[in-house]
Amino acid sequence: MTGTSLDSFKSRKTLNVGGKTYTYFSLPDAEKNGLAGISRLPHSMKVVLENLLRFEDGRTVTREDILAVAKWLETRTSDHEISYRPARVLMQDFTGVPAVVDLAAMRDATAKLGADPQKINPLVPVDLVIDHSVMVDLFGTPTAFSENVELEYERNGERYEFLRWGQKAFDNFRVVPPGTGICHQVNLEYLAQTVWTKTENGETIAYPDTLVGTDSHTTMVNGLAVLGWGVGGIEAEAAMLGQPITMLIPEVVGFRMTGRINEGITATDLVLTVTEMLRKKGVVGKFVEFYGPGLDYLSLEDQATIANMAPEYGATCGFFPVDADTLAYLTTSGRDADRIALVEAYSRAQGMFRETSSPDPVFTDTLELDLTTVVPSLSGPKRPQDRVALTDAAPKFAEALKEIAGGRKDRTKLPTSKDESRFVDEGATGVHDIPEEARVPVKGADHGLADGDVVIAAITSCTNTSNPNVLVAAGLVARKARALGLNRKPWVKTSLAPGSQVVTDYLTASGLQEDLDALGFNLVGYGCTTCIGNSGPLPQAISEAITEHDLVAASVLSGNRNFEGRVNPDVRANYLASPPLVVAYAIAGSLDVNLTTDPIGTSTDGKPVYLKDIWPSNAEVAEIVRKVITPQMFTGRYSDVFKGDQMWQNIAVEGGETYGWNSSSTYVQNPPYFEGLKMEPDAVTDIKDARVLGLFLDSITTDHISPAGSFKAGTPAGKYLVERQVAPRDFNSYGARRGNHEVMMRGTFANIRIKNQMVPGVEGGFTKGPNGDVMPIYDAAMSYMKSETPLVIFAGKEYGTGSSRDWAAKGTRLLGVRAVIAQSFERIHRSNLIGMGVLPLQFADGESWQSHKIEGAESVSIEGLEGLTPRSEVIVKVVRPDGRIDEIRTLCRIDTINELDYYRHGGILHYVLRNLVAA
């Protein structure tokens, strides 16, 4: 398509690099030919503008669209809709499996319409990295990794066979097998190129590397100057099937950094500070771009750490421009020399290369951080943006404990850090001498357990395991602690789940892996584990003590998510922290210990040991990183990355254009989305006499909505599997079963911590059914479905915040929900709702379901949908049980014409399928 660009701004030209000629679309030339001032655009907006220049066709991208970007310089905001086409798509297996299931279902539907199934095929490169399926069942032993991998294959054989079929059946589709790494780190270390190339019509075209991913932390690669962000699986499928992503020209908030972080401060401390600041600023749906002299002192891995958590601070992306450090990282990670030369030449030619002396771009708004003010930090106990300075962690936990414990009656004393007896240590590996009334016994153990005890300490997740500085720091903490005779507390489940095999190489080469092993931080797997709820079960005696005595147990993890119910069902206080702090808390064993003032243990010679005694200097960390990390580590690990181990290669695959669905499979089933599909969609009809399925407060996350983590036999999903002779020990997780809609719709709104205000005081996925009885949300939805009664949901602010979980929308639609009426929506979830044919409506400012006194027993009608237009006013009629009728004026959050087309077709996949078949 780039070869047919109208090029109305005469920007097409050639670039010679190392004896090779590349065609590209020059921003400086476009500036000379009608786009005055665009050299002042933020770097991220230059990437968007180049995309429009390259794809200008007079239909999906017009001259007016391009001019609107230049006009942005005057207004710094825009309500102009553009069509954006990323170069590629990235998936992880949890969200990737249902995406491939949908593609397989689309092939079936295409065949039933009498068309060629091969019309359903990715049109842009797609990489799927299997990284979300490994669970921390075994830990603290040298064989933990191999045993966890064996269990992973045993549990996920059906899914992996399906993905192997997909790799064979679809063009432009590659699979990185299990046991390789986290998709974002594999992307950063290998897949991303910063400048992409494609041969078309006999010429090689160079353009910025861009992507969308089915994981919200796709933004991590923004640290490598690659523009990308998370989308739902639904939107990603459309993108890889050739559909542009429609978006409003974004606002871009500039985040200026000055100074340099102080001795002992980590990138994790920095990113938690940045997340807190940007959440307070309010950047939902906006680009964030980092600039200023402080960038000179951040490593590229530090930048990637900050970019990773864009979903946590609410932004679409957290972009860093190309600079000298980008080139250095591409070199260190073993990228091809010709590619590195192209990245530098292209970026300089386009005015996209950041120098210390570069003038500041124009931004919509700005904020500033002096890096010298960053202090050691954690974040918790429930949200990533709730930063707590390490100095305040213990007293802040004591405050949080009172709220979390609530009305607990079995014990009245809540231990606090002021209890000096807590810090009397009975030896290097002993337990704190907590008063008897504040400790509970653990069956078969010589220690008790108390509120705030850290039962999970996990070095995990893409946020930090891509950053060798914090991983080496963690290893050095372990080394220094080991030398003094310290160890983890016996109630702590420890784990190390690196983001790539390269991490193992440099930890082994430095000898630090041996030190981590000695403290129980043995390798448990390469993948996203604790951060997504794959923490595995706690030891039974620990779990029983927590449950029987209603303890508020804690986790400390180097992840990016700590929402309620996410990490482990037994753990109610979850804190994000740097890898070295994770090790320190494993040694301390409790959040009630103030690591800045209290000893965390006793050395072999009987002396108290403080955190400062085992904390490494920046110079120590830098020396090891510089000494052990080599390009050969990267090239060696990624030389045959798609091959996989022997277990992967031994998976038998049945070929075919369409998939041979197994009706008895509990992992992969043909979804019902395309049943009865016709070439022309039915007209949109009003929603009449709908009932309320849920009333929710602010910050309902996609973790609350979408099935995630483990589940028990008594849940609707558990009952479904038990009926099919699946033993509870083999349930696996919701994420692993995302390819089976029957499991997933039963788990929608089933989070153990969700609170439906229709049943006040009840925690978990419950509501009132047609007769007013309290029952699981799934059961109520099925009762309404039998009578063909539509459903609606009311919610507060930031509805759908969190990961880009497409099942949060898919499950909502399969339960029969036709509309969600909220005070505000998170960007990705709003888009996904429309992609599944669910109408998002927004209350007027200052209004809410509470202000309209909605209690859940009302019936709701939404009229005038046949004439719906983007962002139009929609009247919601609420009929009270006594017959009174109120009208609520809401804003239709279908924001663009393309989104309206998707809604009218019943969803984006229906729209795409009909267009592809008609082509």
From TrEMBL:
InterPro entries found in the cross-reference section: AcnA_IRP_Swivel, Acnase/IPM_dHydase_lsu_aba_1/3, Acoase/IPM_deHydtase_lsu_aba, Aconitase/3IPM_dehydase_swvl, Aconitase/IRP2, Aconitase_4Fe-4S_BS, Aconitase_4Fe-4S_dom, AconitaseA/IPMdHydase_ssu_swvl
Residue ranges constituting the Aconitase A/isopropylmalate dehydratase small subunit swivel domain according to the UniProt record: 719-845
MF GO annotations: 2-methylisocitrate dehydratase activity; 4 iron, 4 sulfur cluster binding; aconitate hydratase activity; metal ion binding; RNA binding
A GO biological-process term: tricarboxylic acid cycle
Keywords: 4Fe-4S, Iron, Iron-sulfur, Lyase, Metal-binding, RNA-binding, Tricarboxylic acid cycle
Record field: catalytic activity: (2S,3R)-3-hydroxybutane-1,2,3-tricarboxylate = 2-methyl-cis-aconitate + H2O; citrate = D-threo-isocitrate
Stated family: Belongs to the aconitase/IPM isomerase family.
Role: Involved in the catabolism of short chain fatty acids (SCFA) via the tricarboxylic acid (TCA)(acetyl degradation route) and probably the 2-methylcitrate cycle I (propionate degradation route). Catalyzes the reversible isomerization of citrate to isocitrate via cis-aconitate. Could catalyze the hydration of 2-methyl-cis-aconitate to yield (2R,3S)-2-methylisocitrate. The apo form of AcnA functions as a RNA-binding regulatory protein.
NCBIfam families for the chain: aconitase_1 (TIGR01341), PRK09277.1 (NF006757), PRK12881.1 (NF009520)
UniProt protein name: Aconitate hydratase
